[in-house]
Structures are given as C-alpha cells and as structure tokens.
Specification:
28% helix, single chain, 6 helices
Length: 183
C-alpha cells in the first residue's frame, strides 16, 4: 500500500470549483439537485483501492471497488461494484449475468461511455451514460451496506453516500437498473 496525502477534513458541501475538473463539479451538482447528502475527503491521486485504506478510516465507511468490464466482442459493458477487499473472479460473475469471457474494458470505452478515466471509475459515471450502454452489477455485500465510498469522477476525492440514496434516487434519475450478484 502506498501512502497518499489525505486532507482529514470531512466536507459535506460542494467544493469551490477552482482547480476542480468540470466533470467532478457536475457530479456534485447532480447529487445536490437530487438532495443526496454526502461527505467528502480530498486526497492525493489514488491509483488503487489499496491507496484508499486511510481514506476509509477518515470517512468511516468502506470504499467500494468499481470495475469496468466488457464481453469478448466489446459489445456489452458492465460496471461492477463490490467490496474493495473482496477478490474478483470472472467465472463467478459470468454465470450470474449470462456473459462469458468477461475482461476489463479499455480506457477509451470508459471515457466514451462514462466520461471517466482509468483509476476514477465510479457509479456516478452512469449519469453520463445517456444511451444506457453500461449495465450495473452490484455485489450483495455492497448493496446491503448502509453507506459506501466512491470517487466523484476523479480519483483525488472520495465521497461517502447512503447506498439507499444511490439505489433509490440516483439510479432512477439516470434511468439505470441494477442486478445484485453474490461474488
């Protein structure tokens, strides 16, 4: 685990836009528009879930691992949310969603469909999937948590949100449905 800088201050408001990416600010504005409360921690660039262990301590919740996957023909895309400490085995997921030969999707697809770069994958990217090309899959353990942490479309901040707000408010806003799986 590498050490990243963490501002241990918890914020519950939209940050000042100075020095922030437009897509990050759009994520906060959508949450505000929907009345979804969040707590935010700013930190150095996190390139892996392991980098965020100390961020979990500050937020007081688990940060979920977000994996962007595709089938062999790159015609179906999936966003998988699962506990960060759980091992991902493609065969366990493939059976449950009826899609064989899953692999990690290329960054170009991530950027095109979700407006997210590798390392910043987040459920909030579904707000950019207007054509509904990405299917959401959530591990049962994550779906049953009261809260989870995710990036606001950039990997230099992490937010804590109520899982029920994401499932019952945010997803209907985006038009996405989800499938719960057991990994």
């Amino acid at each position: 685990m590498s050490e990243i800088y963490i501002d241990k201050t918890l914020y519950s408001t939209i940050p000042d836009p100075a020095g922030r990416l437009e897509k990050e600010m759009e994520a906060y504005l959508v949450l505000e528009k929907l009345g979804i409360q969040f707590e935010r921690v700013d930190h150095g660039e996190a390139s892996s879930i392991e980098d965020l262990k100390n961020v979990e301590d500050v937020l007081g919740t688990r940060i979920c691992k977000n994996l962007f996957l595709c089938n062999a023909s790159k015609s179906k895309f999936y966003l998988l949310l699962m506990p960060g400490d759980k091992k991902f085995l493609t065969k366990n997921l493939s059976k449950q969603i009826g899609s064989s030969r899953l692999s990690f999707a290329e960054g170009e697809h991530m950027e095109k469909l979700l407006n997210i770069t590798p390392g910043s994958v987040s459920i909030l990217g579904l707000m950019n999937d207007k054509q509904m090309e990405v299917s959401l899959v959530i591990d049962m353990e994550t779906a049953e948590q009261e809260y989870f942490g995710c990036h606001p479309l950039i990997n230099t901040s992490t937010i804590k949100v109520k899982t029920s707000d994401i499932l019952n408010i945010f997803l209907p806003y985006t038009g996405h449905e989800y499938k719960v799986v057991e990994l």
